[in-house]
User: Fold this.
Amino acid sequence: MHGKICAFLILCHVILYGCNTAPVPPEVAIAETQEHEIWRAGANFYMPAEYKAHKAALRTAKDHLIKQQSRLSLFRDYEPVRKEFGDIISGGNGLLNQIQEYKRTKLASIVAQITYFQNRIDTLKKLTLLINEGRAARRQLMSAELLLTEAQRFAEKGKYSDAEKKLKIIPIYAASASEAISPVLNRYADRNQISKWRTWANETIEVSREKGSYSIFVSKIDRQLVLYKNGRPYKTYTVGLGKNGFHDKLHAGDLATPEGKYYITKKLPRSKYYRALLINYPNEEDVRQFARAKKNGLISKRAGIGGLIEIHGGGKEGMTYGCIAMDDHHIQELYNLVNVGTPVTIVGAIDYDNIISSTIKDL
Amino acid sequence: MKRLFLSLTVTLAMLFVLTSCAKQPTQEMNDSKAAIDAVIADGGEKYANEEVKALNDQLTAATDEVKVQDGKFFKNYDKAKEMLAKVKADADALKAEIPARKEKAKNDATAALDAAKTAVTDAKALLAKAPKGKGTKADIEAMKADVAGLEASLTEAEGLIASEDYMAATDKANAAKDKAAQVAEQINQAMAKKK
Assistant:
């Protein structure tokens, strides 16, 4: 009798707990480790929808596993779970590959953007240097360059979304810098303006030819002063301009170099800047332009038109208050050759395809 | 027969008492979740992102174990309780570590800012040596504006430190330092050309 009872109790225990518990399929642990890898690869940043779907599938599979684990061991069947986790692992591998591919594409796009912005910034910087302009623009460009450096660092660390966030701000600074210098630059790409300057240049050269005398022609964009004799270039000098030299002078203190047809009114043998040739700025057109600007509120009502614009020594690298600066030995040479009354024509540019017009096409 | 019935009843009663009376460890689950939330509230996702993810995974595993036991006729939550206790202990330990990590990030940001300030000051000192007069070379003038731009970014980095965004401050300061070194190099080149 006792033997039967014992046998019955053993049977009960076997039914309840099983002789041995079937092991959880190894795919479960693999899928869990893989999920961590997928997360670490940045799935929630780069493929949030796909990652969410993967996690949902994993959750469902785990629920199925839990269901099996809750069963009496005799009735557990891990085969469907094993298959389900196997599918998840395959899907996870696909997702990892997709993330890697996405990141590769992202990196290529970021590198291309960095190159594009660096070129744009370099071009703008070159232009600011060329026109002596851009205290404001340069600050904006520095901000853009700093963002670019930060973006580069993020890209190197694989933080692509952070890199992209920085890159997105750069156009604002670049546009702001471009806007700051475009009023100056656009004049050098304006064909009507250049035609006007060409006409002045031709007239000045023609005077030199007709009278067999000297004429002075200054091209701001080339930073050149050309002395014409009998209508032909006789001497060419490099010059410095006003601090805002690429602007047309409008009023006193604007540090711009005037554009127009002038002539030498006085030769100054003892100038603060070695030798100087005073010109008749403001001429009639300058006076009209000044009056128009004042009337239209473009300049202060208290502003004066300015004067004392000279071609002087002091060095061609100098940035002046609006005058044209030359090396001392060159102004000496010029001073000796020209006389009061010699025409002086100052223009922005005479080539339609000049360095500014061709550069701003790239912006 | 009577004795058989009695034995069976006693056995089943013992099993019932030993196992099926076990209660779901709700309190432990809440405590573990609260411990992880406390880590996150202290900036865990910023300063210990990997560990926070691991803690959440551990919590999910413990919750799954609870679910396994929930589905059994004879429940035993001991393993789940053990797992939950570990989650809580790990979370508490991590929470205790966060201030030190934050402090380190702050120190790193401050050091990066100091280095950037030094680099900008050096660039400014070089600019002060640049030729003076009625005007200076255009590139020197432009670089003065560049340095002004760098100074503005230092102010931004200071603002980020003040708002406890130490990592962003470090990135910004490091970028400014690199750029300041480049500007200094350009100033040297410009001055060399001038000589």
Strands of chain A lie at 214-219, 224-229, 232-238, 260-271, 274-279, 310-312, 324-325, 343-347. The mean pLDDT of chain A is 90.
